[in-house]
Amino acid sequence: MKNPDQSSLFAIAEKLLDQQTPAALVMVVEALGSTPRNAGTQMIVTRDALFGTIGGGRLEWMVCEEARGLIEQQINNKTIEIPLGPEIGQCCGGKVVLEISRLQQKHLVTLQISEDSQQEWTVQIHGAGHTGHALCRALALLPFKTEMVDCRAEALVDLPDAITKSHTPLPEASVKAATADTAFVIFTHDHQLDFLIAAEALKRGDATYVGMIGSKTKRAVFKNWLQENGYDPRLAEKLVSPIGNPSFKDKRPEIIAALVAAELIQLFSDRN
Prior knowledge:
Largest sheet: 5 strands, antiparallel
Helix content: 25-40%
Order of helices and strands: HEEEHEEHEHEEHEHEHH
Mean pLDDT: 90
Distance between the termini: 35 Å
Radius of gyration: 23 Å
Oligomer: single chain
CATH class of the largest domain: Alpha Beta
């Protein structure tokens, strides 16, 4: 069975070793041609659970069987090569080479290095309303380092554990304190506050993305607001608003959150 725990593989491995639970670490050593996951992908298999994925399907089922056999036979490691063709009921057409090892203390170093090197994108969300909460739930499952900022303490409850919560009367200060290349997503309860946060984020000049929920009319009002409040009105040219996919007419918070998450993934991936 698959375990729904969203903990890192390092944390899972550490726990299994502390509990002396027999387990195997599987790593994709080579991924040649069309394959479901890249080289370096890892997962952990125990007698009755699976953490992480090397791509699912028949491939993963076969590898889990191999890993559990290794656990039962107390073999330290083995290397297997699997072509992803009709003979195993898959049509990727590539080939993977996998190393399966009995989980040991030494693997913690490898797992930690692997996790430290993984790309993690930084997002600062302003506005913990319905759409803000939906976006937090979406990003919590993705490789984002996400901070939710709101001046209302009661709005910051029931957010996923992976989300950093910032309660502040001055959200623009959080914008100034953010690291370079942060993506700012703005949908507070107040249009004037939206404008202030967007202006400060755009003024930085190093943001990956500054997006504000709204319409074309709100965008035009924002440009006038910049002029009236001493900002360069040309900053509005770099604002993404409406956010997500404007041609998509469904305005449910979860739909908007999914579209914005996809927009952020595409944007960060293109930059890298």
